[in-house]
Amino acid sequence: MSFPPVPPESSSRRRSSPLALVMVAVVLLGVGAGAYGFGRMFLGYQPYVQASGNMSPTLHEGERIVVRRADGGDVHRGDVVLIEGRAYPTDGHPGVSVVRVVGVAGDTVACCTDEHLSVNGKPVTEPYIAPGYDGLFEFSAKVPEGSVFVEGDNRGNSADSRFRGPVPLSGVTGFVVATGTVVTPDSLPAVTAFTDAGLPGAPFTDSTLTTLRWWIVAGTVVFFAGLIGLIVTLVRIAGRRRKAAAVPPGR
Known about the structure:
By secondary structure, this protein is α+β, with helices and mostly antiparallel strands.
């Protein structure tokens, strides 16, 4: 008695499911998107703690802040920046300081016109500075090329360019873009005081951090969708194989 040859089951079992391959690709896509978001976020941004009250009421002593690396980017009036304390030409000090840029190269920064700071003869109304401060005194300074003039928002308690001179751009290490943490930032409000005074150049605004958060969220969603889809697909494949194995040969 002769019997028909047994079908080559091993080759069919080795065949990959197209849907499973798609789910693997979705998982890898999610991992890639999330890794890109996390990588850019933690390489391009740094957490700091505001060490003093020189920027009150904008930033309070002990408040957590998020700093985006400067990387040679343009610095504008109104920017809140992190600077190296040693960058001051007079009485430099170790460590870093958070201050606001009020003058850029070529500007003449002076005080006071009707109790307001003036830049190139234009009075600037600064709603973000500490009210009732006693730091008003007359000065006038020309900002040299490659430098910025910085002041703390708490003018009565800030040892800044008024006392130590303009800061070279090489001493600006980052832009303060938010309070909170890198993962849960709260963006600083936009400042229009200098453009309202008729001075060109809007302060730096950061949208990348929010975009990177969406990369992470999207990557996480895609990863879990792909993972769940892969698990369901593999379970179904395993179920079909068990049913096929339970059928007697030849039927």
